[in-house]
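Aim 2 progress update. The chain analyzed this quarter is reproduced below.
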Amino acid sequence: MTLKNRISLLVSLLFTILFGLASTVIFILYSNYRKEEFRDRLEIKALSNIKLLVNVKQIDNQLLKIIDQNSINKLYDEKTLVFDSNYKLIYSSIDDAKINWSVADLKYLKKNKTFFKQQGDYEVYGVFYDTNDKDFYALISATDDYGKKKLLFLRYTLIISYLFFTCVCWVTTSFAVRKIMNPLNAFHQKIKKINENNLDTRVETKSSRNEIDLIANEFNFMMDRIEVSYQKQKEFTAHASHELRTPLSRITSQIENVAADRKTTPEGKSFLKTILSDVNQLTELINSLLILSKIDTKSHENNEVQRMDEILFSAIENLNKSFPDFVILFEIEENDNLDKALEIKGNKNLLEIALGNVLKNACVYSDNKQAKVKISSDDKNLIISISNTGTTLSEEEQKNLFQPFMRGQNSKGTTGFGLGLRIVQRILTLHKATINYSALGINTNLFQLFFNL
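Predicted structure tokens:
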């Protein structure tokens, strides 16, 4: 899970839990408040009835019932029972009143003065009233229909509010986190494209001193140091390679002169030929290192339009000059868009080196010193396919195929240093192109070069 998704999830969960707890607390508090408020109303009603019976001598039960029925604060489905000190019912607001009671309840009242309990849908309040002459017990039962409706309304309001604001929170949190993380995403996309050809890339920073800008500043400082070190390394490789070429050229010239001298014995010529072969390999290695050190975006602009078929023919011609026994079979696919697709912006010399290296590699590692070249195109790419017959590479060798100095098991008996394909990849990367290797069948190797149209 990405960082922004984790932050969105955690913030949303936190709000959901806190809002849920707050809603629950509000509902519980209001529920308790309703009970307390209804209890107070029952108490006032019960004490009023007792006081009327005790203090007003002229009032009888029938008149009290009429007063109860027409009371301004009349309770819903109210039932009132009043008992004397002998636990005898002396007043009932409704003749068929059904309040579950027992003598034990009245004794409990005498001891604790009041009680409040739930009986089904009814809430019952009991009170003990002590006068100088007699003791009275009152039980009053009613349903708080109005309070319960308000409580039900509050419950649905809290549930709907909880669901609504939770959804709003998840959406807004996700949007806000994405917006906040946009600079980090841009930073990621920027550094993902950095390679050895564009080490001068820097991440833009703002004046604000937030964490992302601090990281970006440190990254830019790090890239400054890396670029300087890399340039020094390339300069050293280029200078060393250039300096080594001069003495090697002299050695090569001297060996050739001695080998051409009539006074040199056949054994000496054979020995000199072996030395010359080693010197030529060393010269090839130095030339490869020199090419690698010079390949970068600053020294090679890719603005000129080149014809890839012409560059390919030139590479084949140069290869045949050095290796006349190599055979290149050429095929071009008929396509209406091919003529336009062959026009690629790039550096002619570098592209010729890249194609020449792939062709040489295909011929050297084939079992018949032959390679097949096919030019084709699709909607997005110009494709140059180069295949040969010979030992294919294992999966492990394919993973490291374009690494420097990598040579497979099929390289036994052949000369080389494993830099050719590395040079090809560097040149193609410079031209925003790619190269892929695949093994077709048991003994067919295929390299495909893709140039974006």
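The longest strand covers residues 122-130. The chain has a mean pLDDT of 80. These observations will guide the mutagenesis experiments scheduled for the next reporting period.
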